[in-house]
Amino acid sequence: MPRKDSKASADAQFRARVLELVAQIPRGKVVTYGQVATMVDSPRSARAGGGVLSGLKSGPPTELPWHRVINSRGGVSAPNEPHRFQVQRALLEAEGVVFRENGTCDLKAFRWVAQGWSWE
DNA sequence: ACGATGACAGTTT
DNA sequence: CAAACTGCCATCG
Known about the structure:
120 residues, DNA-binding, Arc Repressor Mutant, subunit A, single chain, two-stranded parallel ribbon, mainly alpha
């Protein structure tokens, strides 16, 4: 079926794809920004992935499980908003994710991989 | 339209 | 082993 010009809304497509993917993350599991970026388009868009979530305020008021997206350290980032940091970690723990002393969880066990996708 | 910022990742010192 | 720098892409002001 007809597809719009690829040059059109490339960034918009990226955002929509990230939101859709995050929305598919099952409860109790987590994914790193790099993984999401790789799955949606480019493995170099790790930061862009975070930009999309941060841009949620200007985007759809979705109830996206953004808290299931963490950094490669397997932990939550600590930006200028320690509040979010705290909330995200609490949500993950409430879903069954266990954090270690250093504040990071075992990605080896909690990392979600979509079917058909192979991850190290 | 432009410039600066940011919820990251990977590599090197 | 741990800390610091650079690179990348999208969004915000």
